[in-house]
Design brief:
This protein is of the alpha+beta class. It is 53% helix and 13% strand. It is built from 7 helices and 4 strands, in the order αααααββααββ. It has a 4-stranded antiparallel β-sheet with strand order 1-2-4-3, covered by helices on one side. A hairpin with a 4-residue loop joins strand 1 and strand 2. Helix 4 packs across helix 7. The termini are far apart.
Amino acid sequence: MAAFEDAPVVSYAQQRLVSESCVDLFLIEMVDTVCRITAVETEADSEAMFYKLDSLGYTVGQRIVERFTKDRPRFADTLDVVKFICKDLWSIMFKKQIDNLKTNHRGVYVLQDNSFRWFMRMSTDIGGADSAKKATPYVWFPCGVVRGALANLGVPSVVVAETSNLPQCTFQIKIAK
């Protein structure tokens, strides 16, 4: 009986932790599997692959926001929601904040991550434009995560990502009116 009394108390949050490298590898394999299952022969096949990865990300984004905003007060406006995405959601997912946030104050926000975590270990033989092209499917999932998070916070949007120079990634959020 004394052994149970001396055992350290482990909180609920500590019990649910997952290794960062396992999550990174899982996401790489998830994208590779979706790409392999969806044979890309036409533009429609590429759209199907985008839809699958974006839908998975959308669901994950909704669940993450649900979990991490349950004890927070409601956000005052759209800019506060986007700031939450840039600071808190990005810290939860990528262990850092967004490097740059720009807006035109008309419903368009540009989030720039100069060292996007999922691209840090990515390279190709040719590099440059070839690397950016091959990295494109890997941003569809995070686009869905951001879109799902925004939707769950009451901000319907369209999220598009661009990669021109790895590991940099730019996400453009257009708020639906």
